[in-house]
């Protein structure tokens, strides 16, 4: 019996040590991946924050969310679901911030193009017109144009600098501007008039997109309400019938039901978003 107990203790120790090594390696790999992605993402947004601080904040929020959900539901499955959601939260937040920044840049484009065209009509070169626009305009478009000017000053080719600008601001509008400037530089022509026409086109396109967003706002809100309604009803029923509802979190049949609910609700939300999202 003593030998068997000793062997069992050794086995548990070895398994625990191996599990800790694997967990440590996974955590280190996640930290490196998170900081590398965060560094690129923050630089694209012109946010000068140390990626390490964001990593520790993310880990802290993950642990707090996991423990709070575990204490609240007394079940491991909901806590793991919350942990997974918090794990994916930084990327989702980055996408939201990037989209808002891109929308702001596109809204600033028509006025900026008209400013550049006016400066060129007054006799300024393209670089001088860009400098005036950078001084007068506000971020984030001013930041992108300033980086374009810096690249031109250090000797980057004009076409390459425009390609970099289009890559930083991925949109049909910026591709149109880059193509117009390249064609004007290669074959000649009145660039100020071309920019005015492009500005008019972009303004009309943004107005049409705004009207579509206004018309589809109700459908998007209905999608959010219908997605959140099952979870709200679940919370209400849990407080009304905690004994019966707790079976969802403590029995395999309940875990399957929760999984099906999550899958169906997600599919419903995706389908609604596909219906109300209209490309112009």
* Biggest sheet character: none
CATH topology of the domain at 106-199: Receptor-associated Protein
Q: Care to count the β-strands?
A: 0
Distance between the termini: 77 Å
Could you tell me the radius of gyration in angstroms?
Answer: 27 Å
Mean pLDDT: 82
The structure class reads mainly alpha
Helix content: over 70%
How much β-strand is present in the residues? under 5%
CATH architecture of the domain at 106-199: Up-down Bundle
N-to-C order of helices and strands? HHHHHHHHHHH
CATH class descriptor of the domain at 106-199: Mainly Alpha
Which outline best applies? elongated
Number of helices: 11
Q: Which runs of at least 5 residues are low in confidence (pLDDT < 50)?
A: none
Domain Type II secretion system protein GspF: 113-237
Membrane topology: Multi-pass membrane protein
Protein name: Tight adherence protein B
Transmembrane segments: 55-88, 221-240, 252-272
Describe this structure in words.
It is found in: Cell membrane. Keywords: Cell membrane, Membrane, Transmembrane, Transmembrane helix. The structure is a single chain. Among the domains are: 106-199, Up-down Bundle (Receptor-associated Protein), CATH 1.20.81; 206-276. It contains eleven helices and no strands. It has helices spanning 2-44, 51-73, 76-121, 126-136, 141-153, 158-168, 172-187, 191-240, 242-245, 247-250, 252-276. It is elongated, with a radius of gyration of 27 Å. The termini are far apart. The model has no long low-confidence stretch (mean pLDDT 82).
């Amino acid at each position: 019996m003593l030998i068997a107990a000793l062997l069992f203790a050794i086995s548990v120790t070895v398994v625990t040590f191996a599990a800790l090594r694997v967990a440590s390696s996974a955590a280190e790999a996640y930290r490196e991946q998170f900081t590398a992605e965060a560094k690129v993402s923050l630089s694209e947004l012109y946010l000068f924050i140390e990626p390490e601080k964001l990593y520790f904040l993310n880990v802290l929020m993950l642990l707090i969310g996991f423990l709070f959900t575990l204490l609240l539901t007394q079940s491991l499955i909901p806590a793991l679901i919350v942990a997974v959601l918090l794990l994916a939260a930084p990327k989702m937040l980055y996408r939201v911030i990037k989209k808002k920044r891109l929308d702001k840049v596109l809204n600033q484009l028509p006025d900026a193009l008209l400013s550049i065209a006016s400066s060129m009509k007054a006799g300024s070169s393209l670089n001088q017109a860009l400098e005036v626009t950078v001084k007068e305009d506000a971020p984030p478009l001013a930041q992108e144009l300033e980086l374009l000017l810096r690249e031109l000053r250090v000797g980057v080719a004009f076409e390459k600098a425009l390609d970099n600008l289009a890559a930083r601001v991925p949109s049909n509008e910026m591709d149109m501007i880059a193509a117009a400037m390249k064609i004007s530089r290669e074959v000649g022509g009145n660039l100020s008039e071309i920019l005015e026409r492009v500005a008019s086109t972009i303004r009309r396109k943004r107005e049409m997109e705004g009207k579509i967003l206004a018309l589809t706002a109700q459908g998007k809100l209905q999608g959010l309400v219908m997605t959140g309604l099952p979870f709200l009803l679940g919370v209400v029923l849990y407080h009304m019938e905690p004994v019966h509802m707790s079976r969802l979190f403590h029995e395999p049949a309940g875990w399957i039901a929760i999984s099906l609910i999550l899958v169906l609700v997600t599919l419903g939300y995706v389908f609604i978003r596909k219906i109300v999202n209209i490309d112009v």
